[in-house]
Write a structure and sequence with these properties.
GO molecular function: 3-oxoacyl-[acyl-carrier-protein] synthase activity
CATH superfamily of one domain: Thiolase/Chalcone synthase
Order of helices and strands: EEHHHEHEHEHEEEEEHEHHHEE
Bound molecules: octanoyl-coenzyme A
Structural class: alpha+beta
InterPro entries: ACP_syn_III_C, ACP_syn_III_N, Thiolase-like
CATH topology of one domain: Peroxisomal Thiolase, Chain A, domain 1
Strand order of the largest sheet: 5-4-6-7-1-8-13-12-11
Radius of gyration: 21 Å
Protein name: Beta-ketoacyl-ACP synthase III
Number of helices: 10
Oligomer: single chain
GO biological process, one term: secondary metabolite biosynthetic process
Keywords: Acyltransferase, Transferase
CATH architecture of one domain: 3-Layer(aba) Sandwich
Number of strands: 13
Amino acid sequence: MSNTQVVISGTGLWTPENTISNEELVEAYNAYATQFNTQNAAAIQLGEVEEKPLSTAEFIEKASGIKSRYVYVKDGILDIDRMTPRIPVRPEEQISDQAEMAVAAARKALAAANKSPADIDAVIVSCAYTQRAYPAIAIEVQNELGIEGFGFDMLVACSAATFALQRAWEMVTAGTAKAVLVINPELTSPQLNFRDRDSHFIFGDVATAVIVERADTCKSEHSYDILGTKAVTSFSNNIRSNFGYLATANDDSVAQPHNYFHQQGRKVFKEVCPMAAEHIATHVQSCGIQVEDITRWWLHQANINMNVLIARKLLGRDPEPSEAPIILDRFANTASAGSIIAFNLYHEDLKSGDHGLICSFGAGYSIGSLVIRKR
Ligand code: CO8
């Protein structure tokens, strides 16, 4: 590897116009559950069908910290005879939904980094799902922005953004790219089972983008040296979606519970928190600094109690809200975009020399982190 210093020079956040509060979501779910229980009363009585329990807004906020979420398309989600967004198929000549979200976030990141598409030579689109296998969404984005070079898609669930940033860092370090555009168009709502009380509240839609480039080309007001990156994966079935291209060959209906996001939430909580805390502590120390030297923690945004527990394990005390900013109250879990939204909204006040850590944790299991320092 060369001695090239690599920086994060700009980020962009695209937020959909539509929101759904816990109250709206619960009202629709409860109407659906009540209708289901009425229609299946005899079978429920015989024990052949399980009764659908009711949801509450209080439980959702207490168990997760989520109050509201943004959705790409609201139409259809609260319709109890549908309970999934109504997203029309676009003709092939039109830009795809995810590429459109990605381009909107990318333009903001380019502006923040003071860059034009001509300065970029690689595009990575990395998220929990892409809406098709090929051509890659990244290549469509590259074409839309007029970028020369190459692009590819990556899927690593909640760690898609941090893992892609690490690949970007490696590419710039190795000299195979000068400046990389990493984009996370998280269109999660179509994969959310709005008929399932345990998970109907968890996710929201958003897109984030980050520019990674050589320090000597950086023209940004706020930029960050990448001091180190660390990734780990460890197989677990506790967070899973079986949706995939074999559905027709399997004679399987796409709208089956196992094809949507599903998880063992308690197990995930118990197993991932210690893994993440250990991963972060080891990573920070490997960069020659201590946990106390970190001014800001931009942590994955799945559950407020997870973030408090991880910060407590690291710091030996509760974090100040400004130390580990929470955005999941208004965005919900946005899969890989969560830590990048937190970074986007809460970094400009840092002083030169301040250290920060971006970290994701989620399905796979997968954990990814970057230790950075404000220039
Ligand atoms: N309303 C009222 N009561 C409820 C509800 C509800 N909506 N849901 C559950 N309950 C009840 C349960 O039935 C249970 O009742 P009882 O005690 O009588 O059995 C009680 O409340 C407690 O239930 P839980 O044990 O499930 O509740 P928890 O306190 O564990 O909270 C959480 C549930 C919030 C899910 C929590 O476990 C959690 O957040 N765990 C961490 C999970 C996590 O972070 N997952 C992230 C994975 S996401 C990821 O990696 C990306 C995937 C790719 C993106 C996918 C896009 C769609």
